[in-house]
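Risk register update: the risk of archive-format incompatibility is retired. Evidence:
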Amino acid sequence: MPEISNDEGQLVTDASPTAPRRPGEPALAALGLSAPALSPDDASPHTFPGGGRWRTEVPSVEGPEALAVVLKEASRLDVPIHRISQGSGVWMLTDAEITEMVEATGERDIELCLFTGPRGVWDIGASVRTDSRGGGLRARGHDAMAGCVEDAVRATELGVKCLLVADEGVLWTLHRARVAGIIPADTTFKVSALIGPVNPASYAVYENLGADSLNVPSDLTLDHLTEIRRVSAAPMDMYIEAPDDLGGYIRMYEVAELIRRGAPLYLKFGLSKTPGIYPYGHHLRDLTLSTARERVRRGRLALDLLSRHGAGGDMAPLGSRLPGTLSRFDTPS
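Archived output:
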């Protein structure tokens, strides 16, 4: 990326036809309160294959009805969408509902990502409810892992090309299944924010286990993102606004810098101050549809910020979904 100096002589990375500015920069500079110069050394050198440094994702789209709301609102507000993800799980959708979602996203060349199988919070084990949260959101035992694999096979047979995973063993097993041809070779795996890696070594391990994009916790610092990018080019997912059960963090004004440090990056438009909706059912319909609509609006707000700061360029082409060449552990023969 070209580097230029702004009016204050600070080095910045040019990600658009005009140099981007930082939030509040002109006013603060006039008051003698300019921020320290940006260093080119902490910028990510990576992009998505085919070009672009960021993609968009609308999460928690729990069925065809919520999907229709998201697509309608995205059209109304002109919000580009690369990926739609669901959190309740493949098992919470009928074949007809999955097919309807596959067709609706396929018509618009949007990637559809569905969550796999049982998770610790819904299991009979109580360890995840203790103060230590022992066991986390992982698949407990062979049967829970088998449920995740069942979901993956069923979903891919119905045309789903992206699967959300919240367990290292499930990820490795599904990657082996992909290599063996049990599920299609172009299936991609996304690591859930529920187990997101928090250091460069763990990020690289997930990549090698088969992850094609990794959701990191939204409380990672900018320096943490730079550290990760020094060891891995695997696409990163981050909630620009996180749900309350993931911390409720809102990082709107950092979007441009998150992209500069974390690219290739999926901007996830979550929503704070709202109850959880997993596992979804019709008893949660009104909440689910209203929050789906508001997530798209939050996306518009984030994109408007990028545009106002001159940092709205370098979006990956719509319809792009593959992660590029990534590192993998050798699979058993």
